[in-house]
Design a protein that fits this description.
This protein is α+β, with helices and mostly antiparallel strands and 355 residues long. The protein has 11 helices and 19 strands.
Length: 355
């Protein structure tokens, strides 16, 4: 698991450190506190091991740049990833994974890549790009392919690479990539009949008459569809809450031994539907050894997760983020007793910044 996340000079964050993460983690704070940027930082770090997002069929750096406003790419808008657009400062992302701390660096070059800072015991080089198979003494002095160091990096960081390359980022935009997502996920679901669990979740909360999932032709294309007792409907035509639930649970069912970044899963969800989705997600996280990092603005989600982690015997941490005007993010861990006291006082923990 990721034990700590340290970020420097990324988007609105000048500095941020979140320590002592657990298997289930919730990030709260007002808009602009840096919650989504934390998810993006982990996602960017994962691009060192796997630069291509197989759900969205694009480079992860391009997606982070475009996802908020659906515009821009590394080629023409990369400077927006730097704090105050100052590309002279390195973007640094440090992930502590059990006994190893990996430091990733983003450099303002025409080649979009994430660099791993190497310890001196690995090689004389300072940084290494797994995607480019290149080492660099200084970030802008790329030396070229070095087969020996590539094999050494793979051997040294094999476990970390396996963890990082599978990291998934689930946000509201993922429904726009439904066709790509289905092609990636559906064979894996069918291979182990995990579609049965997905149908069980749908039947419990969204469509009581659900009997199965299938592919149905629409013109020259095929689309995922839900089989009901008396008809079949495209998943595209279901409510937004049901579609989001299907995508999130389907993704988790096919993942093992990695982290899943989930942005505001409460969106479009009725509290009862949210409870159902979260219960399935936590059950799968326990079964598949998944670490969840969730951002939310929902007090209902916090309460639901607090109850469900006891049922599923999962450790939970809740972190409150508050960003100053100069980009320093203050992180406070909220313990259960803290939340109980706030509730007894009639206070909402989402509004800690005005207390």
């Amino acid at each position: 698991m990721i034990k700590s996340i340290q970020i420097e000079n990324l988007r609105g964050i000048k500095k941020c450190l979140i320590e002592n993460l657990e298997q289930v983690n919730i990030l709260i704070g007002k808009n602009g506190a840096g919650k989504s940027t934390v998810l993006e930082a982990v996602y960017l770090a994962s691009a060192w091991a796997q630069p291509f997002d197989e759900y969205r069929l694009e480079h992860k750096l391009d997606y982070v740049i475009s996802r908020r406003m659906n515009r821009g790419s590394w080629k023409d808008s990369r400077e927006i990833l730097w704090h105050k657009l100052d590309t002279s400062n390195q973007v640094r992302i440090l992930l502590s994974l059990e006994k190893t701390t990996l430091e990733f660096v983003l450099a303002d070059t025409t080649t979009k890549t994430i660099w791993l800072k190497l310890p001196r015991k690995i090689d004389k080089w300072h940084y290494y790009s797994l995607e480019q198979k290149k080492a660099t003494d200084e970030l802008f002095a790329i030396t070229g392919i070095n087969a020996d160091i590539h094999e050494l990096v793979i051997k040294t960081y094999l476990g970390q690479i396996n963890f990082l390359e599978k990291i998934a980022f689930l946000d509201q935009n993922l429904t726009q990539y439904g066709r790509n997502f289905e092609k990636k996920i559906w064979p894996s679901l069918l291979a182990k009949r995990l579609d049965k669990e997905l149908v069980s979740m749908i039947k419990e909360e969204y469509e009581p008459q659900a009997e199965g999932l299938t592919y149905m032709p629409i013109g020259s294309e095929y689309t995922l569809a839900l089989q009901l007792a008396d008809t079949t409907v495209r998943v595209d035509d279901l409510g937004d809450g049901a579609k989001n639930a299907i995508i999130y649970v389907a993704a988790l069912l096919t993942l093992r031994n990695t982290a899943v970044l989930i942005e505001e899963p409460e969106t479009h969800q009725h509290p009862a539907g949210l409870a159902t989705v979260l219960s399935f997600m936590l059950k799968i996280a326990k079964q598949n050894n998944l670490q969840l990092i969730i951002t939310t603005h929902s007090i209902e989600l916090i309460k639901i997760v607090q109850e469900l982690v006891r049922k599923h015997e999962l450790p939970l941490k809740i972190f409150y983020l508050e960003r100053t005007e100069n980009g320093i993010v203050d992180v406070r861990e909220l313990k259960k007793i803290d939340l109980q006291i706030l509730e007894k006082l009639g206070l909402d923990p989402r509004f800690l910044y005005i207390l």
